[in-house]
């Protein structure tokens, strides 16, 4: 055998190793040592573990929900949240029948007649007692807009925005997350 043929035979296993084994080894090392940043596409704050609100919703239809807990006093952030929920529901278009904008009111909540819900009849109001809300939101962080899945799990939270421009941008973020969830879900 000539030196050229022998040289080719000795290079073949090295080339095969580089082509097939090296990418697997590099991928393993990248995952093990976190050489890349793990990105998430949701714009809201993921609630882990999810909060179970099914006891408050009782036997309601299995729909996706935009949830807002009415505070004692409805400030500008509260008004922006109610307006945003209505705009998101309208922007969903054909998927709006899969999502229910829902406001939870308690005994000490602001009077619903003085807020945006009168101007937006598609926002549903559910009266509940403070004990139920406190059981779900144990740490008292019920201030924000929440996305609730069809099983009654609160999965995403968006903080209240006091400025209208910030609330509009947040509405776009909520809408993007909700559209992704609806696209992936066959329920509701």
Describe this protein's structure.
- 26% of the residues are buried.
- The protein has two domains: 1-39, no CATH class; 45-184, Glutaredoxin.
- With 188 residues, it is α/β, with parallel strands linked by helices.
- A hairpin with a 4-residue loop joins strand 5 and strand 6 (153-158).
- Helices cover 41% and strands 19% of the residues.
- The mean pLDDT is 85.
- It has a six-stranded mixed sheet with strand order 1-6-5-2-3-4.
- The chain has helices at residues 3-32, 54-57, 76-91, 130-136, 164-184; strands spanning 45-52, 64-69, 99-105, 124-127, 145-148, 153-158.
- InterPro entries: Thioredoxin-like_sf.
Q: What pattern of helices and strands is seen along the backbone?
A: HEHEHEEHEEH
- How far apart the termini lie comes to 71 Å
Q: Radius of gyration, rounded?
A: 25 Å
How does CATH name the architecture of the largest domain? 3-Layer(aba) Sandwich
How many structural domains can be distinguished in the coordinates? 2
The fraction of residues assigned to DSSP E strands is: 15-25%
- Counting helices, strands and paired strands, the structural category is alpha/beta
Overall spatial form: elongated
Low-confidence stretches: none
What is the subunit organization of this protein?
A: single chain
Number of helices: 5
Q: Which CATH top level class of the largest domain fits?
A: Alpha Beta
Task: Characterize the largest beta sheet: strand count, sense, and whether it forms a barrel.
Answer: 6 strands, mixed
**Tally of DSSP β-strands:** 6
Instruction: Give the overall average pLDDT.
Output: 85
CATH superfamily of the largest domain: Glutaredoxin
């Amino acid at each position: 055998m000539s030196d050229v043929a022998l040289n080719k035979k000795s290079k073949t296993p090295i080339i095969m190793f580089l082509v097939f084994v090296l990418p697997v080894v590099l991928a393993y090392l990248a995952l093990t040592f976190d050489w890349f940043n793990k990105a998430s596409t949701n714009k809201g704050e993921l609630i882990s573990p999810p909060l179970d609100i099914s006891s408050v919703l009782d036997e309601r239809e299995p729909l996706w929900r935009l949830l807002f807990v009415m505070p004692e006093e409805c400030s500008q952030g509260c008004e922006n949240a109610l307006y945003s929920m209505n705009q998101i529901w309208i922007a969903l278009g054909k998927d709006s029948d899969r999502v229910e904008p829902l406001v939870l009111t308690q005994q000490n909540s602001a009077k619903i007649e003085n807020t945006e819900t009168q101007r937006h009849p598609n926002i549903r109001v559910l009266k509940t007692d403070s004990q139920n809300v406190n059981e779900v939101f144990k740490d008292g962080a019920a201030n924000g807009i929440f996305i609730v899945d069809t099983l009654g799990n609160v999965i995403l939270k968006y903080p209240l925005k006091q400025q209208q421009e910030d609330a509009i941008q947040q509405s776009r973020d909520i809408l993007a997350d909700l559209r992704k969830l609806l696209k992936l879900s066959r329920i509701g």
